[in-house]
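Our collaborator T.R. sent over the components below with a one-line note: 'Predict the complex.' Nothing else. No constraints on interfaces, no templates requested, no preferences about which chain binds where. So this is a plain run: every listed entity goes in together, and whatever single assembly comes back becomes the starting point for the next discussion.
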Amino acid sequence: MAMRLQVKENKVRILVRCALLLCIAMVLSYLENILVLRFALLPFMKIGLANIIVTLAFFELSTSEAFAVSSMRVIIMGVLFGSMISFFYSAMGAFFAFGGLFLSKWLGKRVSYIGTSVICACLHNLGQAVVAALFFGLRVASFCLPYLLIFGAVFGTFTGILLNFISQKYKKVISK
Amino acid sequence: MISKKRTWLDIIIIAIALVISALLIGLKFLPSEGDLTLSVISEGGESEYSLSENREIELMSNGISLIIRIENSSAYILSSECPNGICMKQGRAKRAGDTVVCAPAGVALIIKSGGVSHGDAVAG
Ligand SMILES: [Zn+2]
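Returned assembly:
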């Protein structure tokens, strides 16, 4: 009896934690949309603020929680703010970025959050370039891609440094 | 699982991303021949214009309306209703590989060499 209660309690705990992470990810997404509209120099440019949450969840919690947060964010943001095309962009970007998480998991201790974020940011942008290629042709995508990779490297480094810091200092807050 | 401190591989990954993008950008500046054309990319797709003929192009992309002007073999964004207006300050594109971009509208002007493609051009 006590054990069953324990199991149930854990499920509720995970659910609440996911909901909380999803909220933070959505706020970051929204903030990013505003920033990009104001300051962006290129179409498809992203900072990847929401990816901070997904990456943390992936490495500090579990794959399934990270996946839940990532996919729900894309769907809800798409329904609330997006057009059909922007939904495809963010869905493909999130999908590619998630692949990057597995890649860096495979690299293990050889990378920190910095390398991980750069990989994810570049793959995220590559995913968006793939959608751009599907909608607008290869030429548009190949025009944007090099700049997207540069932004991926720059902002990925930035978020990675932040993640290294968060994961060292706030281990207790984000741990299981 | 994952290192919490910077590693060598981190640096190498950053370097790889930068080198690939530098190579891709470098490809665009290879010498080219033929007439120059303007390629306009927007929400509605891509369309090409000859640079030798002065004209204005009005278009709507991402809910933002823009006017592009072709003048003396160069192209620029004459006006845009975008929030930041960076595109109007980017100057003129005239050589192959030059670009002018309005990010909020998702519009890019790219100068290309090789003449207007005949594939799907409308006659007349
Ligand atoms: Zn603009």
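Summary for T.R.: The domain at 2-175 of chain A is CATH 1.10.1760.20 (Arp2/3 complex 21 kDa subunit ARPC3).
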